[in-house]
Design a protein that fits this description.
Immunoglobulin-like; Rossmann fold; 3 domains; six-stranded parallel β-sheet; five-stranded antiparallel β-sheet; 11 helices; signal; membrane; DUF6754; Fibronectin type III domain-containing protein; FN3_sf
């Protein structure tokens, strides 16, 4: 409620328009956006109830309302503009039935920026990552020895194949319900190749039931080529690499039937699996087979861990191809990825420690909190 002096002052001076109105093209965007800023009328004794944003392509023909803002706001973003078109703006302050309009500003146009300066951090990280990849790629091409940690599941493949051979039982390999377009299926093909070579060397039957006809064709060619390389083309039997069905639980029932009839000594689950994973893995466990699994489907990993002897978790199945065929491109990429992951863990841990210390010593050393906020702000990507 206005006091008597305030009412007298309002009657004499009147409602003042907004001051310092500015209209600029929105920075770091894809265009079609203009930002308006202003300041509230100085010394205004009349309560401001809001602002009306006015726009015109030709100020001589009048302005049209494009938006409103509450009294506590001093900024407005107009997202309904056309790049390259000239606009003039004015802001009208409201107080009940009274209003006062600012002087028009313009012309201003919007345009898209080629580079978002708020994302320099992403550019820096991208350059560092690409640089590390190329560095390790060149080292691998020059024959430099690079240490890569071992995967327990890969070392167990030979043991599983030897166990099945000693028991006189076949080997079963499954891609799950994956398609040939799935990266995990492509990554599993070199594993099938290694297993097929060993089965030819040990003269152990290899069974590969498939849920997709294209994956079946790729599996047949992989097994046939592996047998040929081992000098055993006669050992290949197309009836052992077959298509069952594309139905999820129909495939699971078919694989379970094969397991119960053939009682394989070793089972390999490498591919894309869904809810049928535990059903098939438990069936394999019931016949006493040693089981190795690998998938990128994180929701199924707990079931494989519970039912199988060895499990490749996530990206380990991708890294397996590099172990089996250490080509420079794959080796350099894998080493670069491991190096980046290591330093990311170090940086995240250091940031957490810095944030904790800054929170504990916020009064004694406020500069630590400022450093922590700067690091977090820089590491947060802008959208």
């Amino acid at each position: 409620m206005l006091t008597l002096p305030g009412l007298l002052l309002a009657a004499i001076v009147g409602l003042m328009p907004p001051a310092s109105l500015k209209a600029v093209d929105a920075p770091n965007d894809q265009g079609q956006s203009i930002i308006l800023t202003w300041t509230a009328p100085e010394g205004e004794s009349v309560p401001v109830t809001g602002y009306t944003i006015l726009r015109s392509c030709a100020p001589d023909t009048g302005f049209a309302e494009v938006g409103t803002e509450p009294a506590a706001t001093s900024e407005y973003t107009d997202n309904d503009v056309i790049d390259g078109t000239k606009y003039w703006y004015a802001v009208q302050v409201k107080s009940g039935a009274d209003s006062a309009r600012s002087a028009a500003v313009g012309p201003v146009t919007s345009k898209a920026q080629w580079f978002n300066t708020a994302r320099v951090n992403i550019l820096v990280v991208t350059v560092v990552i690409c640089g590390l990849f190329f560095y390790y790629l060149q080292r691998a091409r020059k024959g430099a020895k690079m240490y890569i940690r071992k995967i327990a599941g890969l070392d167990a493949i030979d043991d599983a194949l030897g166990r099945a051979t000693e028991m006189g039982k076949p080997i079963l390999f499954s891609f799950g319900l994956g398609y040939i377009t799935d990266m995990v299926v492509i990554a599993a093909l070199p594993l099938l190749r290694k297993i097929a070579k060993k089965s030819a060397e040990y003269s152990t039957r290899l069974i590969v039931p498939n849920s997709d006809p294209i994956v079946m064709t790729a599996a047949q060619e992989t097994v046939k080529e592996a047998y040929t390389e081992m000098g055993r083309p006669d050992f290949y039997n197309p009836d052992n690499v077959t298509f069952l069905t594309s139905d999820q639980f129909g495939y699971a029932a078919g694989v379970d039937g094969i397991i119960l009839r053939e009682k394989p000594g070793a089972i390999f689950w490498f591919g894309y699996f869904y809810a049928e994973s535990l059903i098939m893995a438990e069936t394999g466990h019931s016949v006493g087979a040693i089981q190795l699994a690998g998938t990128t489907e994180t929701t199924q990993l707990p079931f494989f861990v519970a039912a199988c002897d060895y499990t490749m978790i996530g990206e380990e199945i991708y890294a397996a191809s590099c172990y089996l065929r250490p080509e420079p491109i794959m080796l350099g990429t894998l080493k670069g990825e491991d190096f980046i992951r290591f330093w990311l863990i170090v940086l995240v841990t250091a940031t957490v420690v810095l944030g904790t210390v800054a929170a504990v010593l916020s009064k004694q050393a406020p500069v630590l909190n400022q450093v922590f906020e700067t690091v977090v702000r820089w590491a947060t990507p802008a959208y």
